[in-house]
Design brief:
The chain is built from 4 helices and 10 strands; from the N terminus they run βββααββαβαββββ. By secondary structure, it is an alpha/beta fold. A hairpin with a 5-residue loop joins strand 9 and strand 10. The longest helix is centred in the N-terminal third of the chain and has 13 residues. It is globular, with a radius of gyration of 16 Å. Bound molecules: NADP nicotinamide-adenine-dinucleotide phosphate. The site of NADP nicotinamide-adenine-dinucleotide phosphate (NAP) has 24 residues, from strand 1, strand 2, strand 6 and helix 4.
Length: about 190
């Protein structure tokens, strides 16, 4: 069976964005979890998809100009992900969204559809977020691995990664690594028992 691996960037107090809806402590939204080579599908929450599509379309169309949403140049890692995203199927989990600009995007209506996707043949699936989808799929027992990049910051107010998680869930630490700028990479597998 395909594995579902979530990659998220969070502050030390578990916030994935500040109160204004932006994680301004994240300098690049590149795929920094080492997943690109092992996945052939992305799972994206309905809450984040419209903004996500806009963000990466801007880089795909103008990789070497200031990004209209951040006013900074895309990093080389972001340009890499823009290319991978263009050829990778994206599945948006949403009961309300019905259309996307990207031709390789389709829609799943809930947890049952996600479970069916996992049973299909293929490579691993990159669960990109946002917070509510990651928590919902962990609660449903559909996530195999969590890769967190933890930033050296107490963000205070903002959206917590696990604010909507309802089930207790034990994790097994597989790898911890100190990165530059005080960030820490943590890889956990999800245990079947609580
Ligand atoms: N820091 C990071 O690494 C990172 C990564 C990704 C995203 N983000 C941020 O996360 C924010 C979006 O997160 P979010 O929590 O608001 O929204 P989200 O997780 O992207 O989407 C939530 C939506 O997904 C749909 N859904 C379907 N089944 C679900 C289930 N079982 N559990 C939960 N949701 C389900 C629902 O859409 P319908 O109501 O349409 O059915 C729900 O409203 C964005 O602002 C983005 O910037 C941060």
């Amino acid at each position: 069976m395909r594995r579902v691996i979530s990659g998220m960037k969070a502050s030390l107090d578990g916030k994935i964005e500040g109160p204004d809806g932006v994680a301004d402590w994240v300098q690049a939204w590149s795929e920094d979890y080492g997943l690109s080579h092992q996945i052939d599908a992305c799972l994206v929450g309905g809450g984040m998809y419209p903004h996500y599509e806009q963000y990466w379309t801007a880089i795909q169309e103008n990789p070497d100009t200031l990004h209209p949403m951040t006013n900074r140049l895309p990093t080389s890692g972001e340009k890499d992900w823009a290319r991978v995203a263009e050829r990778t199927t994206h599945y948006v989990v949403s009961k309300t969204l019905t259309s996307a600009h990207w031709p390789r995007t389709s829609f799943l209506r809930g947890v049952e559809d996600v479970a069916s996707l996992i049973r299909q043949a293929g490579k691993d699936i990159y669960l990109m977020g946002g917070a509510r989808l990651v928590s919902g799929l962990i609660d449903a027992g559909l996530v195999d691995e969590l890769r967190l990049l933890v930033y050296p910051l107490i963000a205070g107010d903002g959206k917590a990664l696990f604010a909507t998680a309802r089930q207790r869930r034990a994790l097994e630490l597989k790898k911890a690594e100190q990165l530059e700028d005080g960030r820490v990479s943590l890889i956990y597998s999800l245990c079947l028992t609580p």
